[in-house]
Amino acid sequence: MGDIVNTLTLVAIAAVTITLGFGLFALFKGGSFGRSWSNRLMRLRVALQATALALLALGAFIASRTG
Length: 67
Hints:
Elements: H1 2-29, H2 31-66
Helix pairs in contact: 1-2
């Protein structure tokens, strides 16, 4: 179970990083593309960060229970 949580945590952190990169790209590109995508991508990043933090907390809980 701990290995699955660790893998999911790494995937979530990678997704946050990729989303952050795309969001920054959209923000700096500007124009109609920037207006329509930068805010949407930043909201997605926040949701992914919450997921990553929940997985980190779950991993810490599992690690404390198993020793």
